Amino acid sequence: MSHGAATLRVVLGDQLCRGIAALRDLDPARDVVLLAEVAEETTYVRHHPQKIVFFLSAMRHFAAELAESGLTVDYVRLDDPGNTGTLRGEVARAVARHDAQRVVATEPGEWRLWQDMAGWEAATGVPVTIREDDRFLCSREEFATWAKGRRLFRMEHFYRLMRARSGVLMTGDEPVGGRWNLDAENRRSLPRDVEPPPIPAIEPDATTAAVIALVRSRFADHFGDLDGFGYAVTRADVEALWERFVVERLPAFGDYQDAMARGRPFLFHAVVSPYLNVGLLDPRAMLARVERAFRDGAVPLNAAEGFIRQVLGWREYVRGIYWHTMPGYADRNAFAADRALPAFFWSGDTDLACLAECIGDTRRNAYAHHIQRLMVIGNFALLIGADPAAVNRWYLEVYADAIEWVQLPNTHGMVLHADGGMLGSKPYAASGRYIQRMSDYCQRCRYRPDVAVGPTACPFNALYWRFMIRNADRLRGNQRMAMVYRTLDRFTPEKRAAMLEQAEGFLDRLA
Ligand code: FAD
Ligand code: DLZ
Ligand code: SF4
């Protein structure tokens, strides 16, 4: 127990680094750091059990790390007697416990909690300072300045600005190699003879084992397997995994960025988003490491640029969009989509082999890579006209890296185009042919990706055309959709009708 003018320093579950704003200028002699496991955060959506284990175990390890460095840490466990179940309640109890004169926190990653924090002063009776989260390379204010006056936002413009401003992968004012974006070189499917290097699972230590037991006893009914939990939860393990990625998988990351393969859920991806999002990895250090690997000749430009674009471009861009447009963003529904999510989103029990595989990977690992999320699961949700609120919630629940600032723009904007095109210039709708080209999923499917009508037809095909027909008013004028509508306009009335009938029949069976 500390005395005098203590400051309570609040650290949330996704703010696990010593450099986090709330811990700056901390007085180790007087201040107390609070981390709290609370029911509200573990249940506001039905998180995948591995996601809960990851957050709580990483929190416990980080608290231990701070305590070992000599700080006073107050750690509240989920099953501690007296736990109020809310962050607000735990901050108020800790203020009283430590006779704190003020509270310092860092802005959260979700609008929901940001709103809640506005009530912390009333709940605690002391001044509460919320500091900017400066782990990002683009502040909320800088994004707002960039966005001002723009009706549509485009990642590519934002990305070039971030490259120029940060100097990452630049030669003077020019991009290294003369091109900003090498995406066109990052679309290979996985050849049979290429085997991605395995990613070691981290054996749970005693702390993680205790959290697994806790989660098993309280959240066993949530979607997702708990057996096989292998995420890293300490900085040291995370850094070793990151370095291994740079050496073993980054060189081929670019080539196979869009590939999908049965039984190979991670391919050449980094699998670092959970670590990055909770503060166990620092984006600036990652960017520097990738650039160094390129300049040392260890990785080609299409890999280095491809990776840097994700972290310096997409990640910063979606965060900017989130804070710039919330709270209204989530309420938009450009296609007036309202279909309930099919039950197989939670069971994986479907005869569409691609969906069964991607949902199965999600259940087993609380992870699916970008193209699985976007072009299989997301594409399907878009084509069937699934209710955006249900889709958004599903994505927030099932992935270990899901925090709303990053999940929502990706789901609501990139996948569903529910924002009317604010984030992406066109919907990523695709037929079964795309999935066939980029994966081996179709080989074991009872449907055929090259057939559109009839009992063996891949459902994605007719759904694709139904989507284009139904949303023609919105999409026909879009330059980037011109080819699609030229093709559609060549359909005979019979072909059009057959396509619609096929799609409706599938949707009826789905219901
Ligand atoms: P890699 O493919 O190796 O990429 C490296 C890093 O780049 C990632 O770790 C991530 O930090 C960043 N990145 C890549 N793409 C994006 C993107 N579109 N937006 C933001 N960052 C990106 N990412 C999350 O972190 N949390 C989410 O909840 C999330 N939800 C998504 C939902 C949908 C529908 C889609 C299409 C994408 C979503 N993403 C989300 C983005 C992306 O799919 C994941 O970041 C990526 O799959 C994480 O795996 P990885 O670390 O192996 O990434
Ligand atoms: C995701 C999560 C979970 C499962 N549990 C906790 C918790 O018990 N305590 C906590 O401080 N944070 C947790 N988190 C992360 C928060 O939900 C996250 O900080 C906000 O969603 C956004 O910043
Ligand atoms: Fe998916 Fe269609 Fe291929 Fe089957 S045929 S795996 S449903 S894309």
Brief descriptors of the model:
single chain; 511 residues; mainly alpha; Rossmann fold; Serine Threonine Protein Phosphatase 5, Tetratricopeptide repeat; DNA Cyclobutane Dipyrimidine Photolyase, subunit A, domain 3; 22 helices; globular; binds flavin-adenine dinucleotide; binds ligand DLZ; binds iron/sulfur cluster
Give a summary of the structure in a few sentences.
With 511 residues, the protein is mainly α. The protein has helices at residues 39-43, 49-68, 87-98, 111-117, 120-124, 140-147, 155-166, 206-219, 235-253, 273-278, 283-295, 301-325, 344-347, 353-365, 370-384, 388-398, 404-415, 432-438, 459-470, 472-475, 482-489, 493-510, and strands spanning 7-10, 32-36, 72-76, 102-106, 128-131, 170-171, 174-175.
Task: Give your account of this protein's structure.
- This protein is mainly alpha-helical and 511 residues long.
- It contains 22 helices and seven strands.
- The chain has helices spanning 39-43, 49-68, 87-98, 111-117, 120-124, 140-147, 155-166, 206-219, 235-253, 273-278, 283-295, 301-325, 344-347, 353-365, 370-384, 388-398, 404-415, 432-438, 459-470, 472-475, 482-489, 493-510, and strands at residues 7-10, 32-36, 72-76, 102-106, 128-131, 170-171, 174-175.
- α11 packs antiparallel against α12 (301-325).
- The protein starts with 6 loop residues before the first strand and ends with a helix.
- It folds into three domains: 8-131, HUPs (Rossmann fold, 3-Layer(aba) Sandwich), CATH 3.40.50.620; 140-197 and 249-325, Serine Threonine Protein Phosphatase 5, Tetratricopeptide repeat; 344-510, DNA Cyclobutane Dipyrimidine Photolyase, subunit A, domain 3 (Orthogonal Bundle).
- The strands form two sheets. The protein has a five-stranded parallel sheet, sandwiched between helices. A two-stranded antiparallel sheet has the order 6-7.
- The protein is 49% helix and 5% strand.
- The radius of gyration is 24 Å and the shape is globular.
- A hairpin with a 2-residue loop joins β6 and β7.
- Bound molecules: flavin-adenine dinucleotide, ligand DLZ and iron/sulfur cluster.
- The site of flavin-adenine dinucleotide has 28 residues, from α10, α12, α15 and α17.
